[in-house]
Write a structure and sequence with these properties.
single chain, about 120 residues, alpha/beta, 3-stranded mixed sheet, 3-stranded parallel sheet, 3 helices, 8 strands, globular
Amino acid sequence: MARNIIANCRNFGFTGRIYTVGKHHGVIDGHKIITEPESLPSGIDLAVILIPAGQVAGIMDLCGRRGIRHAVVSTGGYREFDQHDNRVEKDLLETARRYNIRFIGPNCIGVICADSGLCTPLIP
């Protein structure tokens, strides 16, 4: 999924820095995968979150501590699956509010900004 987002950004002319974060070392479309999110530089504008719903609040907390104030949460698995137990969604909202993070999602297709070339849909 990250590979599609990176390719979309490249194809739409995005010239900003892209950092890929994951559990395993490697490279995605020329971008080294960072396995220690705490080592991300400051000044990152946006996080695109593609992990299981139960882990999103923790990553949102990390984003808040790193000063990232905008996010796209593409992950599904919230109220659309379980109307009665939406603790995972509440945790996400509480964390975003704590750090004043504005986000789109969860379970969203992404965003496109024609001016900057930012293009985060998961589809190529």
